[in-house]
Amino acid sequence: MDKRIIRLRDRLYEAAGIQTAIAVSFTLIFSLVIVLLSLVLYSQFSARSRGMNIDSTERFLNQTRTSLEDYLRSMRRFSDAMYYTSIKNSDLDESGLYSELNLMYEANKDDLISFAIFSDDGTLISAVPVSVRKEGADPSSQEWFQAAMEEVENLHFSVPHVQNLFEETAGQYHWVISLSRSIQLTRGGVPGMGVLLVDMNFSRIAQMLARANEDSSYQYIYLCDRDGSIIYHPRQRLIEEGLFREDALAAASRPDGTYENIGSGQGQITVVKTVSYTGWKLISVIPEAGWQLGMGRFRYLVILLISLTLIGVIGITQLVSRQISRPLLQLNESVRDLESGNLYPEIYIGGSREVRHLGQTVEASVRRIRALMQDLVVQQELKRQSELDALQSQINPHFLYNTLDSVVWMIEGGHDQEAVRMIGDLASLLRISISQGRTIIPVADEIRHARAYMEIQKIRYRNTFEVDFEVSPEVESMATVKLIIQPILENAIYYGVREMDGEGEIRVRAYLEGGDVWIDVEDNGIGIPEDQAKRLLTERSRELVHGNGVGLLNVHSRIRLRFGQDYGLVIESEPDEGTRVRIHLPAIPYRETLEAELSSGAGKEGADGEQG
Fold first, then answer.
1. Sign of the CA dihedral 85, 86, 88, 91?
2. For 545-601, where are the alpha helices, taking DSSP H only?
3. Rounded distance, CA 145 to CA 125, Å?
4. Pick the CATH number of 398-611 from 1.10.3980.10, 3.30.70.330, 3.30.565.10, 3.40.50.150
5. Contact at 8 Å (CB) between 588 and 571?
6. How far from the centroid of its chain's Cα atoms is residue 178's Cα?
7. pLDDT tens column, 524-571
8. What is the pLDDT of residues 407-463, one digit of tens each?
9. Is 188 exposed, middle or buried (0-12, 13-18, 19+ CB in 10 A)?
10. I need a surface site. Which of 205, 217, 425, 609 has the fewest CB within 10 A?
């Protein structure tokens, strides 16, 4: 039997591997220990659950009782202030006393319904804010009046009732708790005895207890007097309709403390607290369902602890098992880092001799890959620069031939001054085109190049069109790829205004917009269809461009090669409405571009070439 178990264990190790076998073994052992400890822990929690629920209920009930006593104490202080400050030392027949009492009422009217002063035979002396007594209402026959006259040293609180002494002007009826006390009073200089009645707003107490019941999720709180008459109960309507029964008399007859199964309340815990000044009983009832809810919370806590501990055990077993295969795991992470695209990973070299040799081999391979990638980057940069140089070197020999032919024609025709000016413009144009070998020039130089070009064209075409340049001063110092305006002007002449009868207009505007440089070349020529305009900046535009000149696609490509895909040309055109070509460039000062070229050696080589 033992041999079979050993063979089964060996097969498990062979099938699962060392790391999995160790992890499973540790997990089973620790899980057994955790289950045993959890059972013991749960039994301890069950034993303490009852005490914790009772302690929590008592603390909550004490807080509610304190709030209720604070409110009653404030009413008692109000009664004392009214009696000792205004009534005892004043003659009630004086006219100013009613104003003083009215001011005291206004300051406390949120908590009061009314207060009144009666003589010892029940005669109404004064009342605020009402003074018309109901017919048949005899204060001397009511319990609060008799209690005040019998126990002159005490304050007496009644149970909630509808205020029934005075006529309400708005037809409203208020539930009140009456605070009464015996007082000494003076009328017309004659001392005597009387009763001070303060009707407190019962809704304040009801709101206070309602909030307490809202804060208690599985128990309820009610208030009764010492005789068991309910003052407030959250299920008052159910009690009145006979749908719910509360044995308040049994609870009120007990002293403060905690009791189980009082009266007919089987399976419940009752906590009793006495409210000072009144003898009222504040009672909290924890039903059996609430008790089970408390036990359930402990159960969930135990389950949570077991789950967290099992997670910790699994983590520990994984850590221990991983320590055995740590060298291979770390080398594997290095390879994953390389796979994610990091060409400079930290290759782990450690562990046994075989693992170290494998790490050294991977590290050598990474070095070779980096060298090949660097060579590829250099080749791509050279290719990009070659493409840019090739595009830049495309000069229109046809334009140069026509210009020189026009010069020969002018000289033969005796137009020497015009020929000299045309040769000067051509020299200026070629000088700017060379630009000391640099491909980036200021916008001001590019504008001068465009002006020279247009002067030559105007002479060639005998001023059959007008040209207007509008350049913002802040744009002139910005950097641009050279020879980008002239090809667009050439298109505007050849395909826009050349065929017009002396009314051709070409407008060049350079300005800043949205933090970038914009150069617009606009003509009022024949325009082109929208679908054809969209194809001008694609490879298919070669089918639309005649001759071998530097076309729009050339300019668009050079700008994007230099500044990125966010820049280039935008073409807007409609037939018979003209065409506008917008050049979009980044707002980079030329000085910064020149310094960057000089630091890389490009500017120096260009300068040397110019001098040679």
1. positive
2. 552-563, 590-600
3. 14
4. 3.30.565.10
5. no
6. 53
7. 988 888 888 878 887 655 544 443 334 788 889 888 888 888 999 999
8. 787 787 777 777 787 787 777 767 766 655 577 889 998 898 888 888 888 887 877
9. exposed
10. 217
